[in-house]
Structures are given as C-alpha cells and as structure tokens.
Design goal:
Order of helices and strands: EEEHEEEEEHHHHEHHEEHHEHEEE
Strand content: 15-25%
Structural class: alpha/beta
Radius of gyration: 22 Å
Largest sheet: 6 strands, antiparallel
Number of helices: 10
Helix content: 40-55%
Shape: globular
C-alpha cells in the first residue's frame, strides 16, 4: 500500500497543499504548531473518516474556508490497482468518494486506505481509561472488518434509545418491559458481534505483540493481552452462548439500570489489560515498560493488518521517534524500512537516528506551508 500524493484544501492551517512524488520514508520537519501533525492527521482522517485527536469535525475545517468545508484527496496504490480517495468535511456532514463514486455509507469507504498511527498519546492505551482502549479496538478492527463498524454504529444507536427509555421508567409503576425487551434483543444482537470480533482481534494481536515485545526486551519480558468483558468469560467465543449470557445479564441488572438511567452491561463497558511477566502494566509497569508495550502493540498492528488484507498499511509516526531511546528507535525503523511506507514528524533531524533514515525525503513545514 502506497500513497503517491496528497492534496489538502482548508484543512486546519493548510489553505492549499499538494504533495506529489512521496517516498517510502517521508520526514516532516518543523517547529511545534506549524502543521506537522495536521498533515499526518489528514492521512489518518482520510483512512478512518475521523481524526485521532478530536471528535469535532468543525475543528478540522479552516476558519476562512470559503464554502465552510475541508477537503482531503490522495491517490493510493493497492495490490489490485490505484484508488483515488476523496473526503469532504462540512457542517452538513461527510462525503467520501472512491474513484469519483460517492459511497453510500462511510463504513464502505473505511479500509480503502489502511494506516497505523503511533503518537505520544498512545501511551494512554496502556495506562489510560477503558474508553481509550475501547476506541483503540474499535478503530483498528474497523479498518480490516467493515462489518464491525456497521454493528458498532447500530449498537450505539440502540444504546442511546435504551438509555432514554431507562430514564423515562424511573419512578413509574408500569415497568415498560415490552419496549425494553425489544431494545434488549437488538442491543444483544449487535453487542455479541462486537465482542466476538474483539476477542478474535485480540487473539491475533497477542501472537504478534508477544513475539515483538520479547524481541525488543531481548527475551526479558513476556507480554500478555487480556480482554475483560462485562458479561461471559474472556475465552468464550460461541455467539449463541454469548447471546444467552448477555440477555441474562441484562435481565439481572434491569432494576439497577432503571435506577441509574443507564445500560450497565455490554461492549461499551468492556476493557483490555496488559500484563508484563504476570504483572499488570498499567499498575506495576515503569514508564519505559509502558512505552515498550505501546510500541509492541503498534508493530503488531502492522503485521496483523498485513495478515488480514495481504498488504502492509501506511505507518504514521507523529513526534514519537524522539521519545524512544536509540535501541527502540532502531527496532522501530528496522521494522518499517523496505516494506512499509512511513510518514515521520519531528522538530529536527538531530533528534532521530539519522544513519538509519538515509534516503528519506525531507519536507520542512512553516505556518502551513511545506517545502521539500
């Protein structure tokens, strides 16, 4: 997978940008707040139809955009041919096109360009809140399994409707059980699909992450991933069994949910934990161990996506190489060289292992203007 060029219009601080002739390794250099991260964010947004930094699309559109919209376009080489990808962001919503054809659903567009983003905030995957880890799972699984995004979207819609009903039932004598049972069935139908796909994904990610982590630590550490579901067992993968357990849990917590006005069971309450040599990394791991765990996960993602789709994704390294010691820098660089197109942002070449990055194309960014 290879991005030949990228065009931005009215995206963040880029009024107009067109980069052509992109290379295997692309260094985006410049001081802070000049637009380095905005460029790799645009690539991520083109892949996922959303930013990794904000949930508000309005923040991605330049204040002086004449039509109030931002535009991202790229030509991407896939093993089955070239694709022209276009994404328009406006207050009215998003429009996505593949080779000029508008896609009916964004989930049909996601997966046209596969990316792995590694940024300093990815340390939060290990030590942050459960919501951060769920988002990590949702974004990565959605890239390689579009059906996952469909079930996730449907689940979130049902979750909202069910929550509204629970709030209405508080203090009322009539139970409203019939309507609640309808929402329960729909919630469980989509929730079980989500949980099953998460378990399958984590099982595959575990294989790669464990091997990579062992290599980075010279065999000194063993990394294990544990999925923590709000119903059923961690290892249980049979859909029929999961469905029964989900429905049972919903019936058992119904009174409590009505009192609290929220759904207390389901994949929106699940979590993922990481263990190093049998000890939980978020609690007992040093910052170096937590950073190594995050690095292992990202490198594992690259191999997992390759295994799923037969192509390597594009790697986006946002101001992260300088955060790693020389040994970990080398491990990361040697992973992507010669097989993964990579975009690296940094304040300067002096913070990087320059000997390992010979042949990289360098771009300088200043106030939303890029010079090669």
């Amino acid at each position: 997978m290879f991005v030949h060029n990228i065009t931005l219009r009215h995206y963040r601080n880029y009024g107009s940008l067109q980069l052509e002739g992109l290379g295997d390794v692309n260094l985006i250099l410049g001081q802070n707040a000049q637009g380095k991260t905005n460029l790799v964010e645009a690539l991520y947004c083109l892949a996922m139809t959303k930013s990794h930094r904000t949930s508000k699309d309005r923040e991605l559109i330049s204040f002086d955009a004449p039509d109030g919209a931002a535009y991202i376009e790229a030509e991407v080489r896939r093993r089955y041919g070239n694709l022209k990808l276009e994404l328009t962001l406006s207050p009215q919503g998003k429009k996505a096109k593949i080779n000029g054809l508008e896609q009916r659903r964004l989930s049909e567009f996601v997966g046209s360009l596969n990316v792995v983003m590694f940024a300093p905030e990815d340390l939060e995957i290990v030590k942050g809140t459960p919501g951060v880890r769920r988002r990590f799972l949702d974004m990565e699984i959605g890239q390689v399994q579009p059906s996952y995004l469909f079930h996730l979207q449907q689940y979130q819609k049902v979750l909202l409707q069910r929550g509204n009903l629970l709030k209405q039932l508080w203090g009322k004598k009539e139970a409203g059980g019939d309507m609640l049972e309808i929402w329960d069935a729909q919630l469980a139908e989509h929730g079980v699909k989500i949980v099953k796909k998460r378990k399958e994904f984590i099982k595959k990610l575990q294989v790669w992450a464990e091997e990579i982590h062992k290599g980075i630590t010279n065999g000194g550490e063993e990394l294990k991933l544990h999925y923590i579901p709000s119903f059923g067992e961690r290892e249980e993968e049979d859909e029929a069994v999961l469905l029964d357990k989900f429905m049972l849990k919903l019936s058992q917590t119904r009174e409590q949910e009505i009192r609290r006005g929220m759904t207390l069971t389901g994949p929106h309450r699940d979590d993922l934990s990481f263990f190093i040599n049998g000890r939980e990394a978020s609690v007992y791991g040093s910052q170096g161990q937590q950073r190594t765990t995050a690095l292992s996960l990202k490198l594992a993602e690259i191999e997992l996506i390759h295994g799923e789709i037969g192509e390597y994704p594009v790697l986006l390294l946002d101001d992260v190489l300088s955060e790693l010691d020389p040994y970990r820098q080398t491990q990361l660089i040697e992973t992507f060289q010669s097989k993964v197109q990579t975009f690296i942002t940094a304040t300067g070449i002096e913070s990087l292992n320059a000997d390992k990055l010979k042949g990289a194309i360098q771009y300088r960014v200043h106030s939303g203007i890029i010079e090669s």
